[in-house]
Amino acid sequence: MLLSFPLDPDPTTVEIISDLIYANSTTLDGRRFAAEFVSKRKADATTKPKGNASSNLPGKTQSIADVVKTQPKPAQSEWGFKVVNKKKKGGRS
C-alpha cells in the first residue's frame, strides 16, 4: 500500500503513513519512518531507471526458474543427521 502513494507526497499523505505506523507498531516512530520512507523512495526512484533500462528489453524476460538457478546454493550444515550401524553385542565366543 505504501508504494501506491506518489513519489512526492503532500503533508497529508506523510501524516497517513505515520498514522499507519503508529497504529501497527509500538516500537517505531511514525513520523521518522514516514520521512525516511519518502526520502529513500525518492532516491530509489531516481536510481532505478538508469540501472533497469537494459533489463526491460522485450526478449529478456526472466522466469522464476532462471532466478532460482542464479541463486547460490546453501552450504551443507555440519549438524545434519548421520546414519550409524547398530551396536553389536559384545560377545564371548
Task: Report on the architecture of this protein.
With 93 residues, the protein is an all-alpha fold. The chain has a domain at 1-46. 47% of the residues lie in helices and 0% in strands. The chain is built from 3 helices and no strands. It has helices at 11-24, 30-52, 64-70. The protein is elongated and about 90 Å long. Residues 51-57 have low confidence and may be disordered.
Topology:
Layout: H1 11-24, H2 30-52, H3 64-70
Helix pairs in contact: 1-2
Number of helices: 3
By helix and strand content, what is the structural category?
Answer: mainly alpha
Strand content: under 5%
What would the average pLDDT be, to the nearest integer? 79
DSSP helix fraction: 40-55%
Oligomer: single chain
Overall outline: elongated
Report low-confidence residues grouped into runs of 5 or more.
Answer: 51-57
Distance between the termini: 78 Å
Radius of gyration: 27 Å
H/E series: HHH
Q: Profile the largest sheet.
A: none
Attribute tags:
93 residues; 0% strand
Quick recap of the structure?
The chain is mainly alpha-helical. It has helices spanning 11-24, 30-52, 64-70.
